[in-house]
Amino acid sequence: MEPLEIVNRLKDKFLSEIVQVTEFRDQVFVSVNREKIVDICRYLHDDPDIHMDYLADLCGVDYPDNQYRYEVVYNLYSMKYKHRLVIKALIPGDAPDVDSVVPIWNGANWHEREACDMYGIVFNNHPDLRRILMPEDWEGYPLRKDYPLKGPDDSEYRGFEELKDLHSHDDEWNIR
Questions:
Q1: Domain spanning 3-173: CATH 3.90.226.10
Q2: Which residues pair with residue 21 across a beta bridge?
Q3: 138-176 per-position pLDDT tens digit
Q4: Nearest by Cα to 117 from 132, 102, 100
């Protein structure tokens, strides 16, 4: 089944939730309202003719000047039929949250944790939503466009000096 055929099936079932469909370089992108993301993903996963059984990637995006500041991008693939589709959940900046798709694809677990850690997007009903890349005491979300380049208050990470001391001998081990 071609991606646009899948989109037509989505439109038949979720027309009011689809905001935009775009094509670029043989890929199809479907932007949807976040409220029904689990229902849409469940349909794409469970329908025997579509069978999107593999979540290849899930990531966050920050567009600070857009009406929907954030997007969560789901790159879906069917191992059985070898077709792809990209779903984008549109998320407003004043309420950066969306429901978790971990019940559909268990592999979404760490991807959602990373998007939360880096962008501050909360995944409702996630089984273990805690930081995965940054230290637990880190303030802010480093991949947001308004995040300062040197971190909060232009200060280094609290453990930076300890790391410098730990690696102070590295220059002596110049391997040629």
A1: no
A2: 30
A3: 889 999 999 887 766 655 566 667 767 777 777 676 644
A4: 132
